[in-house]
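re the bet — no i am not wrong, look at it urself. input seq straight from the record:
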Amino acid sequence: MKLHMRPCVIKDLGALANLGRRTFIEAFEKDNKPEDFKEYLDSAFGEERLLKELQDINSSYYFIHKDSSLVGYIKLNENESQTDIKDIDAIELERIYVLSEFQGQGIGEWILGQVISIAKAKNRLYVWLGVWEHNPKAIKFYQRLGFYKFGNHPYFIGKDEQTDWLLRLDI
């Protein structure tokens, strides 16, 4: 298995929108009200919004490939583009998604290793992320890798207010 990661560019917009929608549906559709879920998908993965994010110098999307297959993606935020903390010493891992058929193969752990390498290269002190409080599998995964809870924040799926735990990894 050969994994590699590459930055997304404007020409990747359609593929990014499709992958974002697909992985979010796989992960969370069953746990949300259909109308709220559709509203969120249309907002978060609309091409106009993704284009703006791809053009933001403080946000970066990366595609993850296993051999020649596109298997996931991440989104990193720095400086004022971070959703909550906005700490110049931090990088936010806003999104990390792997297609369901590729989960359980060590890809997520590999991705986090890449994120840590990026953060170190930029002289950041920590990586942080938000994870839904009702996602015990993800919480356990992050905690196993050294992340710890330092707070929480509201996260809206449509009009449904949910709670994300804020997790931090000091590097």
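see?? The helical segments are 13-28, 34-44, 47-54, 107-121, 136-144. told u. also The chain has one domain: 3-170. so pay up
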